[in-house]
Specification:
Strand content: 15-25%
Shape: globular
CATH architecture: 2-Layer Sandwich
Pfam families: NDK
Bound molecules: ribavirin triphosphate, magnesium ion
Number of domains: 1
Subunit structure: Homotetramer.
Order of helices and strands: EHHEHHEHHEH
Strand order of the largest sheet: 2-3-1-4
EC number: 2.7.4.6
Family: Belongs to the NDK family.
CATH class: Alpha Beta
Organism: Acidithiobacillus ferrivorans
Length: 141
């Protein structure tokens, strides 16, 4: 399987729960490497730009409010099959549907406050990484 990069966001609810280390640890334990990471408090416009693909959805306004409600941790994860591996570790969007042992099953409260974001394809991963990081801020090992 090819080495890939994917974008992870630890959302405001999980940062507030003091779960940054626990979540990054799950990625590392699964064989993914942190290639870049930083803490940010997104403006509402920055959150809206990031989730622009969902602009027409009924939940877009709430999603933008939530993602700009407190600091987040944005991380580039790298490893074999990183995009699908991260989605597997995250679990289903709604924590009620998330498999036991996934990040959302263990840390998410609701479909809105669902602990983590992860890129859903190679194309979106490249765009999402570029939204937050320059090439000189990303380190492969
Ligand atoms: P994410 O983009 O945050 O990793 O989540 P995802 O791929 O699992 O889900 P997506 O469909 O991309 O939706 C983005 C975020 O919008 C909220 N959402 N609410 N009320 C609803 O039906 C609904 N659907 C989605 C979730 O917080 C989801 O993470
Ligand atoms: Mg998504």
């Amino acid at each position: 399987m090819a080495v890939e990069r994917t974008l992870s966001i630890i959302k405001p609810d999980a940062v507030q729960k003091n779960a940054i280390g626990a979540i990054l640890g799950r990625f590392e334990q699964a064989g993914l490497r942190v290639a870049a990471t930083k803490m940010m408090h997104l403006s509402r416009d920055e959150a809206g730009g990031f989730y622009a693909v969902h602009k027409a959805r009924p939940f877009y306004g709430e999603l933008c409010d939530f993602m700009s409600s407190g600091p987040v941790v944005v991380t580039v994860l790298e490893g074999e099959g990183a995009i699908a591996k991260n989605r597997d570790l995250m679990g289903a969007t709604n924590p009620k549907d998330a498999a036991a042992g996934t990040i959302r099953a263990d840390f998410a409260d609701s479909i809105d406050a669902n602990a983590v974001h992860g890129s859903d394809s190679a194309e979106t991963a490249a765009w999402e990484i570029g939204y937050f990081f320059g090439q000189r801020e990303i380190f492969s090992r």
